[in-house]
What we know:
CATH topology of the largest domain: Uridine Diphospho-n-acetylenolpyruvylglucosamine Reductase, domain 3
Order of helices and strands: EHEEEHEHHEEEEEHEEHEHEHEEH
Largest sheet: 7 strands, antiparallel
Shape: globular
Strand order of the largest sheet: 13-10-12-11-15-16-14
Helix content: 25-40%
Structural class: alpha+beta
Number of helices: 9
Number of strands: 16
Amino acid sequence: MTLCPTSLADLSRQLADCHAAKRPVVAVDLAALVAIRDYTPDDMTVTAEGGLTLAALQAKLAIRGQWLPIDPPFPERVTVRELLAKNYFGPRRCAFGPIREHLIGLEVVLADGRVTHSGGKVVKNVAGYDLLKLFVGAHDSLGIITAATFKLRPLPEQEITLSATYANLANAWSAVETILASPVMPVILDLHNLQANGTFTVRLGLAGTREEVKWQLAHAGDLQSVSTSDSEPNFWMSNVTVHTDSVLPTRLPQALTALGSVPFIARAANGIIHHQGPPRLKSVEPLALSQRLKNTFDPHHILPEAPL
Length: 308
């Protein structure tokens, strides 16, 4: 069944009823839980409910010159709960890391209806076990995320994206290596083959104060053309399934060669590959441990199973 709670207490009651009846929950709609419960710009922290979209949250933070440094595709559709439950990210993970690094507190309703809290509202908080990270990427299989507290960052004064196109993968990867060996600190460093002519494109994003961006531009090597278009949205809007794999960054050229001609976007600084077509890498997820966690948090298995 699909749950459409009107409040945190309502969700707790509905899940408790499903747990008692061993009735599976197909989906949960948190459209009624969209409040920003607490925002302290001076401390650079915010607590937002799970149904709030990332775009709405970013718009509120931007008023005070701040943002949550995470940029998945289509933020107007992604809620805070989905952002965490599905561990979404975008190209700026190159500089700012995954959402786990910005999460400091979490409110979750467990399968039996209990409301739990972990972490806190301050950046430096080392009390107790760091259980909140268990729910990141769990796809609602352990509990339903209803609110989260994040640490924020100032919005950069300027951001610019450069690109260069290369005839083959070897030349494109050489450009990536040159950037990685330079003093440039990219916020985006992507390599993709989304152009229709079979070429390879390297995208470099630079951000900071105007002086910092100007200095980095002088060290950007071949990448001097300002990019005015982004092929990535069309890649994600395609009806073809997108798979995500990861390798050591130094193994990216071999992994991309193995993909053949299928469309891909590689986060070149951290070895993450989004590609269309069949999955290529075997999962090494510790299934036995995942099952033990599932049995502990959801013994009746009423919540969705996490995808393998």
